[in-house]
């Protein structure tokens, strides 16, 4: 079946045209949307078909197998020609006068779309959401993989459509569609700041552990000197380690106190070394100390015997008197 001598046939509309940018027809408003201008013969054919409104079309470049979708603004183009936005020709890799196939389609209403700006400049706009809503009013459909152009303040911003739901091509006319943004193509994550160390403090790892070979402080470990200038015969006092050992030995003894003989010997030694010793033991001679030590040794066993318990060792008493 043919229509007015042109190759329209069947129950659907499908035709090939040569495409040209909107600048050829002096229609700059085409660049802010996704609508094309078709010849009047296409309107006559579409009116005779039972198609859904608004009219939506599939554009296909058979050479590069690029696909996109669009709406229609007017039917005033010359026969065999269509005019389309230049950014749409760039998406489909079309040049002026190239052949493009146009077919009417029915698209589902979109529920979700994810956009990705090419540059961060789009996010620097004071209200990008309002600008995007205003721009999308001139669009009738969106296709996954396309790059749309948003014009604002004498500047052009390109945005990729990276995802659409419920299908790869959706209609956005009279529908509530959720819009999500992906990071711009030139976006770089900020580097994490390295925590700065406080001034005057070196890193903990650089600190060297204290060497175990350093000698510990031992009190009273000096050497004694005499006032008359003669060399001292006294041995240096014992260190704290040796003193602690002596204390452990003393605590293990039964009496817990030094014997009288050892104390007298120490006293004699002190006197012989030329030191002044204050106390009662200083005036006593070694002989007296020896006697006292012997008497003390004899008295200790007697006291131990008296302290022992002796049963039935009491006195007898009679009632007769």
Q: What does this entry look like structurally?
A:
The chain is built from 6 helices and 12 strands. By secondary structure, it is of the alpha/beta class. α5 packs antiparallel against α6 (286-307). The N and C termini lie far apart (167 Å).
Topology diagram in text:
Elements: E1 14-21, E2 35-37, H1 40-47, E3 56-61, E4 66-74, E5 81-84, H2 86-91, E6 99-105, E7 112-117, H3 128-136, E8 141-143, E9 147-152, E10 155-165, E11 169-171, E12 178-181, H4 240-252, H5 260-272, H6 286-307
Parallel strand pairs: 1-5, 2-4, 7-12
Antiparallel strand pairs: 1-6, 3-4, 3-6, 7-10, 8-11, 9-10
Helix pairs in contact: 5-6
Major β-sheet annotation: 6 strands, mixed
| Relative strand content | 15-25%
Radius of gyration: 57 Å
Order of helices and strands: EEHEEEHEEHEEEEEHHH
The overall pLDDT average reads: 75
Number of strands: 12
Helix content: 10-25%
Spatial order of the strands in the main sheet?
2-4-3-6-1-5
Number of helices: 6
N→C terminal distance: 167 Å
- Provide the structure class: alpha/beta
Poorly predicted runs of 5 or more residues: 1-9, 251-258, 272-280
